[in-house]
Design brief:
The complex is a heterodimer of chains A (145) and B (94). Helices cover 23% and strands 44% of the residues of chain A. Chain A has 145 residues and is an alpha/beta fold. In chain A, the strands form two sheets. In chain A, strands 3-2-5-6-7-8 form a six-stranded mixed beta sheet. In chain A, β6 (106-113) and β7 (116-126) form a beta hairpin. Chain A has helices spanning 6-19, 61-74, 94-98; strands at 2-5, 25-33, 36-45, 57-59, 77-86, 106-113, 116-126, 134-138, 140-143. Chain B is an alpha+beta fold and 94 residues long. Helix content of chain B is 17%, strand content 23%. Chain B is built from two helices and six strands. The longest helix of chain B has 11 residues, at 26-36. The radius of gyration of chain B is 14 Å and the shape is globular. Classes of the chains: A alpha/beta (145), B alpha+beta (94). Chains A and B meet through β2, β4, α2, β5 and α3 of A and β3, β5 and β6 of B.
Chain lengths: 145, 94
């Protein structure tokens, strides 16, 4: 289960509305608990895929390193990532799967229809590596405080 | 020097997020890392021994792939290596 505060949940959905019709992306900082990843902070990132930002996203490694440093300073880990699917289902795509390498992390996807966030789903990347990785549907618990 | 380990690979470093190793080049430091934690080898390198395409290794703020001496770049104790898998995707299947 992915635990996230309402304000963070709304923030990642709002990011997708702002970048529509392009995909947004960002990281989830938090802790890994016995019953799942707990988000303490969302961090917006730039989408470097300006060539086809409507259906692709990529976070520059340089930015990822800055985010990882930020997490370390806060005593947190990168526990997941989020991105939007403009006018596409909030389900992982073949591309999402092929490009997913952070085993143990939550991949949150929000469907944006005509600029409005609709459905948000989370998928936990499980396995030990490239050979046996898989996305597993993950419930999102939204905390109100 | 310190090598920072990303969340998904900490299962193979006993949970450590930073590992201190000795080495005079980036390659030596990485070799020391995989010697200490052999399970990391397959996650960082292909069967041919090349760094996997989705694994980025940065020496301080520079991608070692683009440094003139690449992995043979000399390093000092104060330098930091960061291993960071790529993050990408998108809704299109094409």
């Amino acid at each position: 289960m992915l635990k996230v505060r309402y304000s963070d949940y709304e923030a990642l959905r709002a990011h997708g509305e702002e970048t529509y019709p392009h995909e947004c992306c960002g990281a989830l900082l938090g802790t890994v608990g016995p019953d799942g990843n707990q988000v303490e902070q969302t961090v917006r990132a730039g989408n470097t895929r300006s060539d086809r930002a409507h259906d692709r996203y990529n976070i520059a490694p340089e930015e990822l390193i800055k985010i990882q440093r930020q997490a370390r300073k806060l005593g947190l880990d990168i526990v997941g990532f989020y991105h939007s699917h403009p006018d596409c289902p909030a389900q992982w795509s073949k591309t999402d799967f092929e490009e997913a390498h952070w085993v143990g992390c939550s991949y949150v996807i929000t469907r944006i229809d005509l600029g409005k966030a609709v459905v948000t789903n989370s998928f936990l990347l499980t396995g030990t590596g490239e050979d046996d990785k898989q996305f597993v549907d993950e419930a999102i618990e939204i905390k109100t405080n | 020097m310190n090598i920072h380990i990303p969340t998904p690979l900490r299962a193979y470093t006993g949970g450590q997020q930073t590992v201190n190793v000795a080495g005079s080049t980036a390659a030596e430091a990485l070799k020391k890392l995989t010697e200490t934690y052999p399970e990391l080898q397959q996650h960082l390198y292909s069967a041919e021994g090349k760094l996997r395409s989705f694994v980025n290794v940065y020496l301080n703020d520079d991608d070692i792939r683009y440094l003139p001496q690449k992995e043979a770049t000399p390093v000092s104790e104060d330098d930091e290596l960061t291993i960071i898998p790529s993050i990408a995707g998108g809704c299109s299947i094409h």
